[in-house]
Structure formats: structure tokens, C-alpha cells
Specification:
This protein is of the alpha+beta class. The protein folds into two domains: 2-33, no CATH class; 53-183, 2-Layer Sandwich (Phosphorylase Kinase, domain 1), CATH 3.30.200.100. The chain is built from four helices and seven strands; from the N terminus they run ααβββαββββα. Strands 1-2-3-7-6-5-4 form a seven-stranded antiparallel β-sheet. A hairpin with a 5-residue loop joins β1 (78-87) and β2. It is elongated, with a radius of gyration of 25 Å. The chain crosses the membrane at residues 15-33. Residues 72-95 are annotated as: Disordered. This is DUF4245 domain-containing protein. Pfam families: DUF4245 (PF14030).
Length: 188
């Protein structure tokens, strides 16, 4: 037995024999809890959570002191999330955020805020970023904040509200959402 041998005589076999009962115990507990599964082909994506984007944005429009828009996106995009927060710091303000899963399976986040662009971008990105250019969609200038290794961020100023788009979507999907935002009227 390993405990009877002097330490300098113990080898890898002793370690393996000591770990076998521990591994079996972990497998039994995981099986009882049913919190693990075996998937030899890799992970599979589950169903997209259902989220009532119309109700969420209508509620935010009634509660917040800036205009909220509900852009018309392709029918194949599924709204899956929403939240409210407050961008802090100089120029901070309330933020209404919703998310979509596009037909290609990527995620796009749409945030609308009374905060300034200078406060909103670091609040969403988690750090300061420098603008890398701009494009026009439906008459609005969208400033790009692209950084290697991070999701792109696009921001436009619609006067009394800043709109920010970020996520893992393609440039075409960003452009689709930016155009839809420009065509959307504020919710009454």
C-alpha cells in the first residue's frame, strides 16, 4: 500500500490507484445530479430563449425619458434577451438593451441610451476604445469602434438618444440592424 511505502518509493501507479476511487465518486455524483452529459460530437445548441421584445421596448419607452425605437428586423431573427442599466460617469444615463439571434446563429445587441457616446461605448465594451471610421445607413452616421480580438461596436446619435449595436454578427447583419434603426419611429 502507498501509505506503507516511504515517500521516495512511491511512483505514478500509486497516484493512479489513489485517483480511481475519486474519479468513480465524481462520475456517480454527476450521474445522480444529471448535470452532465456525454456528447462525442461536441456541444449542441439548445433552443433560443423566447423574449417579448415588443412588450419590453414599450415598457422602456413609457418609463425612460428618451425615445425608444423598435426596429423591424428580418423575421428569421429571434429576440432572445433584454435588460436595463445605467451607464455611469460623466455623460452617463439610462440604457435599454435588447438582443437578437440572427438567422446565421450570431448574436446582435441593440442598446438605446440618453448617455453620451463617450460614456456609452466604454460602459458596453468594458474599456475605452478609439473610433476607427464611420458609415452612413439610412441617413445616419454610424461611428465604428473596432478593436482586434473584441466584438465591433457601432454607435449613432439620433439627437436625444444614442443607439449602439454590438455582437458577433457580420458586417451585413450590423448594416441591416443599423438601417432598421434609422427607419424606425420612436414608440409613443
Amino acid at each position: 500500500m502507498a501509505g506503507d511505502k516511504p515517500r521516495y518509493l512511491q511512483d505514478n501507479r500509486d497516484i493512479i490507484w489513489s485517483l480511481i476511487p475519486l474519479v468513480l465518486f465524481i462520475v456517480i455524483i454527476a450521474g445522480i445530479a444529471r448535470s452532465c452529459s456525454f456528447s462525442p460530437g461536441g456541444p449542441t445548441s439548445g433552443p433560443v430563449p423566447q423574449f417579448d421584445i415588443n412588450a419590453a421596448l414599450t415598457f422602456d419607452a413609457a418609463e425612460l425619458d428618451f425615445p425608444i425605437r423598435n426596429p423591424v428586423v428580418p423575421d428569421t431573427w429571434q429576440p432572445n434577451s433584454g435588460s436595463r442599466g445605467t451607464a455611469s460617469g460623466d455623460g452617463g444615463g439610462d440604457v435599454s438593451t435588447v438582443g437578437y439571434i440572427t438567422d446565421t446563429g450570431t448574436y446582435l445587441q441593440l442598446s438605446q441610451s440618453s448617455a453620451t457616446e463617450e460614456a456609452l461605448v466604454p460602459w458596453v465594451a468594458g474599456d475605452r476604445r478609439a473610433s476607427t471610421g464611420a458609415d452612413f445607413y439610412d441617413g445616419n452616421s454610424w461611428v465604428h469602434y473596432d478593436e482586434e480580438g473584441s466584438e465591433p461596436i457601432w454607435v449613432t446619435d439620433l439627437g436625444d438618444v444614442r443607439v449602439l449595436v454590438t455582437g458577433s454578427g457580420s458586417t451585413d447583419e450590423f448594416a441591416t440592424l443599423a438601417t432598421a434603426v434609422g427607419q424606425a419611429e420612436p414608440i409613443d
